[in-house]
Amino acid sequence: MKELSQKLLSVVDAAEPKLRHLSGPETTQPTLKGGWSCKQVLGHLIDSASNNHQRFVRATLQDALEFPGYDQDGNVRVQEFQSADWLMLVNLWAAYNRFLAHVIAKLPASKLETMCTVATNDPVTLRFLATDYVDHLLHHLRQIGMAE
Predict the structure, then answer these.
(1) Which of 100, 122, 126, 127 sits in a 20 to 30 Å window from 85, CA-based?
(2) For residues 137 and 101, what is the distance between their CA atoms, to the nearest angstrom?
(3) Residues 25, 114: contact at Cβ < 8 Å?
(4) What pTM value is reported for the model?
(5) CA–CA separation, 139 vs 148, rounded Å?
(6) CA distance 41 to 6
């Protein structure tokens, strides 16, 4: 998991300066027609960090775990990321992901096969959740032009 942790740190280190250079309309205009703005995408990624943080820790403490689903549109709407300060979002996203890289690096090898069920999806391992988290983050950063 140390390699995955390093990958996450590298992604954050590469994307953070690019995110900091965005301002005003660049952060509030939809990145895709009918889609979310950069603020909303970054807010969604903060939610993802929060949800997965709980999954990583709780799955490490138990033999198997079931997690509720995630209403991404509802969460983005309720938290009003669109009206939040851009640099606050960037700071929170970067710090949270650096901490998650630390958590991922410390996941015990003996717990990586813990089975986790999210909503009605098929069960997956803790290892899969951690890897999928980084892939999901990269997917959204690519959408807003912050990763290759």
Answers:
(1) 100
(2) 13
(3) no
(4) 0.94
(5) 9
(6) 23
In 3D space, the residue among 82, 110, 91, 98 whose CA is nearest the CA of residue 24 turns out to be 82
Closest alpha carbon to 84 in 17, 51, 38: 38
Q: Tell me if 148 is assigned to some domain.
A: no
Cα gap 58→54, rounded to integer Å: 6
Q: Which are the contacts of 89, defined by CB distance < 8 A and separation ≥ 6?
A: 39, 42, 43, 46, 81
Q: Which of 118, 145, 114 is nearest to 48 (CA)?
A: 118
**Residue 122 falls inside a structural domain:** yes
* pLDDT tens digit sequence for 24-64: 899 999 987 778 999 999 999 999 999 999 999 999 999 99
| Containing structural domain, residue 38 | 2-143
Unique residue bearing structure tokens 């079931």:
66
The encoded tokens of residue 97 equal 């992901």
